[in-house]
Amino acid sequence: MKSVIRVEVPPQSYDIAIAPGSLDDIGVWMSRLKLGKKVLLVSNPAIFRRYGERAIGALKLVGYQVSHCTLPAGERYKTLKSIQKIHDAALQNRLERSSTMVALGGGVIGDMTGFAAATWLRGINVVQVPTSLLAMVDAAIGGKTGVNHPQGKNLIGAFHQPRFVLIDPHVLQTLPPRELRAGMAEVIKYGVIWDAELFAKLESTKRLDQRRYLDEELLSFILSCSCQAKADVVSQDEKEAGLRAILNYGHTIGHAVESLTGYKVVNHGEAVAIGMVAAGQIAVELQMWTSPEAERQKALIEKAGLPTQLPPGLDIDAIIDTLQTDKKVKDGKVRFILPTQIGEVTITDQVPADVIRQVLSDKL
Questions:
Q1: What is the distance between the alpha carbons of residues 113 and 183, in angstroms, rounded to a whole number?
Q2: Which of 61, 141, 160, 227 stands the most exposed, by the fewest C-beta atoms within 10 Å?
Q3: 347 is in an annotated binding site
Q4: Do 163 and 201 belong together in one domain?
C-alpha cells in the first residue's frame, strides 16, 4: 500500500513516500524533483552488495550520472574521517551545487551522508533511502545529520533536510532480526510520546521481535504512523527550539549507555529501550506517571525483544557524568523527556541527580 506523507519545513518542504517495491523506481521518483544530473550514492558494503546495483540501475535509467562510495558499517565508524571519504568521492566525481547525495542504508549511513551533503559546497541535495526500520521511522526524516565525537554521540552535526525520503518496506525482508528490534524501539517511542493508538496496536500484537510476525497491514500501519508522528513534530519545530526535543525520549540515558560501551555492546535501539525504561521509572519516582503505565511500557519493550536493564558492569557515576555532555543540557541542567500518560510527555530539567542514581541503581 503506497502512501505519501508531507514534511512541512518551508522553504523546502518534502515528501516521505512509503511504497513497496519502490527501490526499482528511485530514478522516477527523483526525476520529479528537477535535480542536477550528478548523483553520489553512499552505502555500506553489505547493503551495496544487496541493493546498490539495483539503485544505480534505476537512477541511470532516467539519465542520472551515478558514482558511489561505500563506508564501513557500524556506529564506531560514524566519524569525521568517514565524512572525508565522502567528500573525497564528491571531489573526485566533481559534484556541483545542483548535485545530489543519495543515502542507501541505515541510520549511520543516513546521518553521515546528510552531514557530508550539508557541508559539501556549503550544502547540496540529499535524498534518503533508508534500509533499516530504525532509519525508516526516525533517522532518515527530519534533517538531523552528524557524526560522533569521542566524548559523546552526535555532538558534531548540522540540520540539513532531505529533498525526498523513499521507503521501500520490501527491503526489511533481509534486515537482521536484531536490527528490526532496534527499529521497534523507536516505534514504541512514538506510541509513548505522541500516538496512543499506535501504542495500543503494538500491545495487541502477539509478537514484535521478528519480521515474520508483522503482516503487511501491520507493517504499513507502523511505518505510516511513525513517519506521520515524526513529520508532525518536525513540521512544528524544525530545529528543536522546543517541541522537537520530545523525539529524544529514551535517548538521554540511551546515548550515555552507547557512548560508555564504545558503541559495541548495545546498538542504538537497544540503548533507547533502556533509556525509555529509565525515563519511565524516573517519571514514576517524580509522581508524573503511574507504575501500571510504566509496566505497560516495559512489557511492550520486552515483547519487542529489547533489553530493559543496563549492561553489566556499567558505572552509574560515569553515566551521570556523561549526561552533562548531552546536547540537551541547558545552563548546566540535563533536560529529560518524561511521560505523563501514554501518548504524552513533558520536557523538564528538574530531575534531581539522586533520583537518576536511585533509578539506575535499583530499577535497572
A1: 20
A2: 61
A3: no
A4: no
CATH number at residue 61: 3.40.50.1970
Alpha-carbon span 213 to 40, nearest angstrom: 36
| φ, ψ (nearest 5 deg) of residue 233 | -70, -45
Exposure letters 85-116 (e unless 16+ CB within 10 A, then b):
bbbebbeebebeeebbbbbbbbbbbbbbbbbb
Q: Is 30:64 a contact under the CB 8 Å cutoff?
A: yes
Number of independent structural domains in the chain: 2
DSSP β-bridge partners for residue 41 = 68, 102
111 is in an annotated binding site: yes
List, in sequence order, the alpha helices (H) in the chain. Answer: 26-31, 45-47, 53-61, 80-92, 107-119, 133-134, 177-193, 196-203, 216-236, 251-260, 268-285, 291-303, 316-323, 353-358
Q: How far is CA 152 from CA 66, 147, 245, 252, 262, in A?
A: 34, 10, 18, 11, 10
According to DSSP, residue 330 is labeled B
pLDDT band with cut points at 50, 70 and 90 for residue 356: very high
Under 8 Å between Cβ of 126 and 100 = yes
How much is the pLDDT for 38? 98
Percent of the chain with pLDDT strictly greater than 90: 85
Q: Which residues are catalytic?
A: 122, 144, 186, 230, 240, 244, 248, 251, 255, 268
β partners of residue 14: 7
- Indicate the average pLDDT of the chain: 94
Q: Say whether 131 counts as a known binding-site residue.
A: yes
Which residue has cell 557524568? 321
In which region does residue 126 sit, left (phi positive, over 0), alpha (psi from -120 to 50) or beta (all else)?
beta
Contact 254, 274 (CB under 8 A): yes
Same-domain pairing of 227 and 149 = no
Specify the length of the chain in residues. Answer: 364
* pLDDT confidence bin for 74, thresholds 50/70/90: confident
Q: Terminal CA-to-CA distance of the chain, rounded, Å? A: 40
DSSP state of 134: H
For residues 78 and 264, what is the distance between their CA atoms, to the nearest angstrom? 13
Q: Which of 141, 174, 207 is the last residue of a domain?
A: 174
Give the separation between CA 161 and CA 165, rounded to whole angstroms.
10
